[in-house]
Sequence to fold (692 residues):
Amino acid sequence: TVLAAQHGWPVPVWTQKWQSDANYEKLSTFLLENHAWLVPAFGSHNVRSIAHAMAVAEQLGVPPRRYEFQMLYGMADPIKDAIRSLGHRVRVYTPYGELLPGMAYLVRRLLENTSNDSFLRQGFSEGVSEELLLRNPEVVGEQRRKRQTMAVITNNAPQAHGRPSVGFRNEPLADFAREENRRAMSDALQFIRPELGKTYPVVIDNQPVQSPAALDSLNPSHSSQVVGRVGRATPELANQAVASCLRAFDGWRDTPIEERAAFLRRVAEVFRRRHWELSAWIVTETGKQWRESDADVAEAIDFCEYYATEAEKLWHPQHRDVPGEENAYFYEPRGVAVVIAPWNFPLAILTGMTAAALVTGNTVVMKPAEQSAVIGAKLMEVLIEAGLPTGVLNFLPGVGEEIGPVLTQHPDVALIAFTGSLKVALLINEQAAKTPGGQNFVKKVIAEMGGKNAVIVDSDADLDEAVRGVADSAFGYQGQKCSAGSRAIVLEGIYDQFLNRLIEATKSLAVKPAEDPGCAVGPVIDAESRDRILKAIETGKAEARLAYQTDVGPLVNEGYYVGPTVFAEVPETATIAQEEIFGPVLSVIKAKDLDDALRIANGTKYALTGGVYSRSPDNLDKVKRRFRVGNLYVNRKCTGALVDRQPFGGFKLSGIGSKAGGPDYLLQFVLPRTVTENTMRRGFAPEVSEGE
Ligand code: NAD
Fold:
């Protein structure tokens, strides 16, 4: 019930007792109708359910030896006697075996029997009348429904004048436990197959533009498969794209905020409509599992909806008026923005930075990462489908090193929104800091960079949870998330136990191509990444003990696969404990106590995400105060931030921007202005109230 509420899914179980009771009767009938093939056994202490089964059996003429009743030893003996005296078979059962595991069972029984809805409690200790106890559950349901309708009508009455709440809601993730979702995803993967290998050009002024060369984007799961050929923009085209943005800027800046917000909402609508197809492209181009690809699209939708709403709020001027003087404080866009994105959240991050820049009135040169340029082209299609005005955004795929410097040093570029590696971020920051002649402003750089995130496992942690959470954080999307937990810092007392269980959990992760729904760990993004990760593993072997590595078998020739790898007894200063590897490699580090763990956890140049597993409220308090990261997760995995709920981003060398999907994010894309007007005219005299 809680998980369904968190995900925005319908609750998958009955939430009211009468519903379970009614369903019990439905199933009793079904079983008895099939007595020719099976022997139904009715386990219940509810006299109504028992009587219902008996009556149906009688009606259907089921012989008494073709079904039985089962009841617990020592409970509700008068009911057992009554059933026997009516000539039915009763099987009495009792749990036996080890006491400790059995405790869980007994506690469940206690909860059940003492619940307000329990038949036994109502019948035996509360003396509820037979008439009420034996009511048909459907009748109870009908009465409840009537009462609820009345309550809704009465409760709503006083609120009728209030403003309806228009709170932001995260786009629900697909529940792949449902067959229709599984089918939709495999259909989409089939649907895009004939589209593989198509060409996607640079787009300037909403028109395709030929570039002298193209880049092949390959499927990391099957590296011989070309996903698409994408235009390779030249410096000349980069200049044209900026010029187009500059021409479109004044018009877009002066477009009412309602229209710009409406544009983002239309983009979100197109995303919803093309959701499965886009997820399938993400699986195919970036080797992301189904679930993660679906989440990528959902996050892109969230960014559009959230920034649309935030921009509308921001665009209400603040007034500070005094007699004879009006003051307005408001925002305007900065100018031409360049958006440079990574491949690891190929749709979400590219959309997020772009949506923020556009809705605040900037015009945008959008540069996707080379490895996910087809998704970038798909986003361009979506933007055009949603009614993108000419020149407001230009699509400039290409090689970062070739066109990046042209864009970041261009005198007409006012803002650079970058997400990617530390190295490139620092380079861009340096380049942008130089002010070329003809540039009449200082460039603004928003940069989100990497991390070397740690999860602290306290000595009293729930190991079932901690092992799963650490494995998810480290190996989800092959460790290629900036938020991935690449260090587990484990307290001495449980170190060995944790490590053994973690290794077993890691063994159970199936390495498969990403389009396979059973894929727990897929390929890494490209050959360069694979080689870099393998090199880091070699370094690790010299620095620490290789505790486990999954052999990827024949997949090694199929795509860019690296098996999940666990290093143990890793010194806190080792390269593999300090540098971002961006692959499925986890360093397990031993700490003497919680203070030591915190010191190690904070001891890198990054401060992006972190996690802690503990059951001690004091320790959790301490970690919340002292583990200084942008996003800290307590007793859960350290990846998977949601827009609005967990605004995302770090500090130190993890980020110089503020948090994506959070309330301050848009402020970086705007300039504040103040207008003061003297409204005093000749003969004007302010009204003076009594007593002044
Ligand atoms: P990257 O830095 O190699 O590339 C990012 C983008 O920069 C690409 O579009 C690339 O073409 C472009 N680029 C490369 N050289 C450039 C240059 N000289 N000038 C301008 N642009 C240039 O990063 P990546 O491999 O795509 O992504 C992985 C990195 O991104 C990891 O370090 C990860 O931690 C980080 N990341 C951070 C966040 C966050 O929110 N903090 C989110 C996702 C990824």
